[in-house]
Amino acid sequence: xxxxxxxxxxxxxxxxxxxxxxxxxxxxxxxxxxxxxxxxxxxxxxxxxxxxxxxxxxxxxxxxxxxxxxxxxxxxxxxxxxxxxx
Length: 86
Hints:
Layout: H1 2-21, H2 30-48, H3 55-76
């Protein structure tokens, strides 16, 4: 149970940092931000085989993955976005 709470807290921090890294407006709420952060930590943990934790570089990579996921989810979500249309 403690691991789940830690994952939620770390996911919230990583997701928030991922939103800060990506410039522009994001149409998502804080629950989706936490979900993206958790997903990015899990993805990096699976990629790095995180038996002993993912360490500093793993968390940095998780923030980058979160920024990419924020950008992808922001593109897929409906809402008024600043787009250039031809």
